[in-house]
Structure formats: C-alpha cells, structure tokens
Amino acid sequence: MVFGPAPFWRRWFATALLTTLAGPAAAFGFDDVARRAEQLAREPYRASTFVLPPELKALSYDGYRDIRFDPARALWRREKLPFELMFFHLGKYQTQPVAINEVTPQGVRHIAFDRRDFDYGRNRLSPQSWGDVGFAGFRVHYALNNPAYKDELVVFLGASYLRALGRGQHYGLSARGLGIDTAGAPGGQGEEFPRFTEFWIERPAPDATALVIHALLESPRAAGAYRFTVRPGDSTVIVVQARLFLREGITTLGLAPLTSMFQHGENQPRPGDFRPEVHDSDGLSIASSDGEWLWRPLSNPKQPLVTSFALRDPAGFGLMQRDRSFTSYEDLEARYEQRPSAWVEPQGAWGPGRVELLQLPTPDETNDNVVAYWVPERLPAPGQPLDFAYRLHWQGERQQRPPGGWAVQSRRGHGFREPDDIVDREVQFVVDFDGPALRALPPDATVEAVASTGPNGRVVERLAYRNPVTGGWRMTLRAERAHPAQPLELRAYLRHGAHALTETWTSILPSE
C-alpha cells in the first residue's frame, strides 16, 4: 500500500480534516468524525459520482474472486504489530470505494490504492490506468486461534456491514451500522442502506490487545460517526459508540441491526435435503431491563413477516445460534454449528421502543433473510444528535442465556394420530427446556406449563414433564386457530409454584 495524497473522490474532505488537525502530532478521534457527520446532515445529500473502471465492472464472479490481496504486503506486518490490515479490491458487486486512513501519533495518513498489493490471477487488467480507485473494504487479522498465525478477525465490506469472529468460530451472521426503513415505509418506499464511506484506523501499539476503528456513515436521510473498539477473545467484543444526525422522512430507524440466514431447521424441516438444519441463527433472544427473557425461534416464511416486541428499556437482544451440535447440521463444509451468535448489550439507558424482527422467504442458504434491530420510540429532530453505545458480543459455546432456563429445541407437528382425530385448525409444538433452575428441582417437583394465545386462538392442551434422555424438561403445547386467514401468536414458559423457571418461548403462525 502507498501513503499519499487523497484521490479526487475524497479531496472534498481534505480541507475539513486540515482544520481538525492543527499539526502533524494532533490527535484524531470520535469527535472529529462526529463534526463532519453533523455538517453533512445539514447539507443536501450528494450521491457519489465515482465511476468504476469498465474492466472491473465487467468481471465475472470467478474473475473477481481471482483478485487476491498479497498477505506479505499487509499493513503493520513488517513492524510485527499484533493486528494487521488487508484490503478488498473493487469489482463486480463492490462498485463504490471507501477511503481508508491510518491514525498515528504523527497524524492521519491516507492509504492509497497500490496495484502491487494484489495478485490478479488469470485476469488481464490494466490497473496502472486506474489511478487511486480506493478499496471496497478491509479485514483485520489477529492471532486468534494460534499464536503463530493471524486469522481473520473482523471484516468491513459493503454498505455498513461488518462481521467478526471469536475463537474457534466460522463466519456466519453480520452486523450493520444502521438500518433505515428495513421493513419498508408507507407509500412503497423501500429500505435505505447507509454506507460507511471513510475509515480511520488507529495504529496499534506493539502490545495492543484491542484495535480502534472510526467510521463515517452517510445516506440520503442520515449521517453518523462510529467508533469501534475490537477486543478479540473466546467471545470477541466490539464496543460501539455512535452519534447520528437525521434528515427528514425516516419512518423506522433501526439501531444495532443484525442480519442472518435461516433456511430450515428442527421447527421447519425441508424435504429432500440431507442436512437436518441449515441456518446461521436459530432464534431471536431478548432480555428486558425488568428481568423478562423472550425466545422466538426463527422461520423461513412463505411471505415477508414482520413482528416486534415492545420494551420499556432493553437489557439486550441477539440473533443466536444455540444449537452447537454437528449432528444437527451434518455439513462438513459450512460447519453451521460453529457459526457465532451475536448479542447486543446496550450501554446506558436506551429508553422505550421495540425489537423488530423481519423474516423473508429464501429458497436456499445463499441469501440473508433475517434482520433484527432496536427501534427507539422517539427520534430526535432533524439535525439534533442521537448518541447511543453498545457492546456487540460474538459468541460460541459460551453465550448469553437466561439465568434460569431456556429453550433448547422447538419442534412443530404431531406424532401418530387416528385420522378421525385430525383437526385442521390445531397445531402442536414440542419444546425442550434446560438450565440450572430446572436441574436444581427435586425429583418430586411439580412443574406447570403456562401458555396463552392471542385473540385468534385458544390453548387446547399444555403439558410439562421431565425428559429422561437429556435431563431437562419437555413441554407439549396444542392450540387451535379460530380463523386461518389471521395469524396466531403463542407464548409459554415453565413455572414451579409462583416462580418462573424459564424464558418465555413465543411463536407466531402467519395467516394462511
């Protein structure tokens, strides 16, 4: 890579940057990015005028994959620093550049595109004619699993997407900086995808255990400043500080969005697939500040499905991969049992709002079809700051769960039944629970399944009994839907006396 002057598509920021940095040793930080975001929000939005070189735009999928960054030229490799940076090339689907800068004690230095950083494989291209086209994104490497090798730790690539890994994990779900009208808006207006357009990455010290990344976010209706502090470990934690400035016209603002994939699972088998389950996440977990926990198993609906959970103040939420058994997936390549769960832990009071869950139909596992995010009840006036912070945990075997008990698996369907007994409007769920509160019960304990439905149904039967195979408890729940054209919502948990033993399991049957 080359340190040099800013390319033509980012020189507009040079003047603002120089006013921020009084000298070569001036500090750079979150407030500098926030001032630029505030200025952008006060001005009419200006879309990028960058034009991708035609030969990059014409690349095939395989041709684009054949462009690889040379690891020997990773930033900070020669200095043997604990973190290293490698960069993604523009082309095919990645058509808009991001500016990337290094922050050092001497000041901020732009990292210019250098064709010598890349191996172009079998492609016949002319990178010497492009100039400084920038990068599509970057990835951070760190000795996460083996002190002798630096693994990929976190990736920023496309819109405001990022993915990270804890020890022993494989890439799965993604996080995003911001969601705007993710489920659509009145009048048929679709989702708006904000972009991280510029990054400032602080050069780590030789003994650093964390990496700090600043980012500028832009979109037609918002601008924002972000600070990501990445702390690798068994559960990698990214501490996020953000300040947003909004323009007019936002219907739904989604904070701390998580994006994942669910094709099929134990609650929704798929005939013809040798793999019992295919998903990056199997449920949405929510913790409220008053101590209630909710669990919503994910699904692959026939039509787009939007549900939400109102809270006075969230203690946390996440898209979780609870099932960590290889035999649940039987996929030697994808290794779904090693995909991370992502848990959002708000810092400070976020106030009232709702966790919104969007599930879209998908024919295969190549499409992310699940999004969860926090929607604040009130938005600031245009131009006024919205400050929020959270910790984003990328978890494996040890992950966020309720303190007492939780749903282990959720299955829908009946066993053997006489044909005369079949009721078209009746549905049955079999849910297994486990956890320390259940394990601590005496052998003669009486456990009750507490269940309820929405106005479109009634509970026909609810049973709770020990599972002698697993040592946990099983709940069988049968409910009847009154009107097939309307959805049916179910809620249930296990109780011993006056004490709730488990989280609240909740499911929704869409209208037919």
Characterize the structure shown.
It contains five helices and 34 strands. The protein is about 5% helix and about 45% strand. The strands form five sheets. The protein has a 16-stranded mixed β-sheet that branches. Strands 3, 7, 8, 9, 10, 11, 16, 21, 24 and 25 form a ten-stranded antiparallel β-sheet that branches. With about 500 residues, it is mainly β. Among the domains are: about 1-160 and about 195-250, Distorted Sandwich (Beta-galactosidase, Chain A, domain 5), CATH 2.70.98; about 405-510, Sandwich (Immunoglobulin-like), CATH 2.60.40.10. Mean pLDDT is about 95; it is low at about 5-25. β8 (about 150-155) and β9 form a beta hairpin.
Give a short synopsis of this structure.
With 512 residues, the chain is mostly beta strands. Among the domains are: 1-160 and 195-250, Distorted Sandwich (Beta-galactosidase, Chain A, domain 5), CATH 2.70.98; 406-509, Immunoglobulins (Immunoglobulin-like), CATH 2.60.40.10. It has 5 helices and 34 strands.
Task: Report the biggest beta sheet as strand number plus sense, adding barrel if it closes.
Answer: 16 strands, mixed
Strand content: 35-45%
Based on CA atoms alone, the radius of gyration comes out at 25 Å
Give the helix/strand class.
mainly beta
Number of strands: 34
Please tell me the CATH architecture of one domain by its name. Answer: Distorted Sandwich
According to CATH, the fold-level topology of one domain is Beta-galactosidase, Chain A, domain 5
Q: Unreliable stretches, pLDDT < 50, 5 or more residues?
A: 5-25
Please report the distance between the alpha carbons of the first and last residues: 56 Å
CA-based shape: globular
Summed up, the helix count is 5
What fraction, in percent, of the residue positions are helical? Answer: under 10%
The CATH C-level name of one domain is Mainly Beta
Mean pLDDT: 93
